[in-house]
Write a structure and sequence with these properties.
The protein is mainly alpha-helical and 73 residues long. The protein is built from 3 helices and no strands.
Length: 73
């Protein structure tokens, strides 16, 4: 079952904190993205098809804010 945008915002808030911690732990891009892939996939799996683009945009914003732009798929 898909989560509401409010619930997704809560998950993304936790992702924001996780990205901050992982960025410190894995300063190289490749290691960072390997460590975060499951975190991002988990949020995407809980979003509806209608919210997927919005969630991807928020994930991109989080990574960019932490100066770790998410690589193009």
């Amino acid at each position: 079952m898909s989560k509401s945008r409010q619930d997704l915002r809560g998950l993304l808030s936790r992702v924001d904190v996780t990205v901050s911690v992982l960025r410190t732990k894995y300063p190289k891009d490749k290691e960072f993205f390997e460590s975060t892939d499951g975190v991002f996939s988990d949020v995407l799996a809980q979003s509806s098809r209608e919210d997927e683009d919005w969630v991807r945009g928020m994930i991109d914003w989080i990574c960019t804010r932490h100066r770790m732009p998410y690589p193009a798929a």
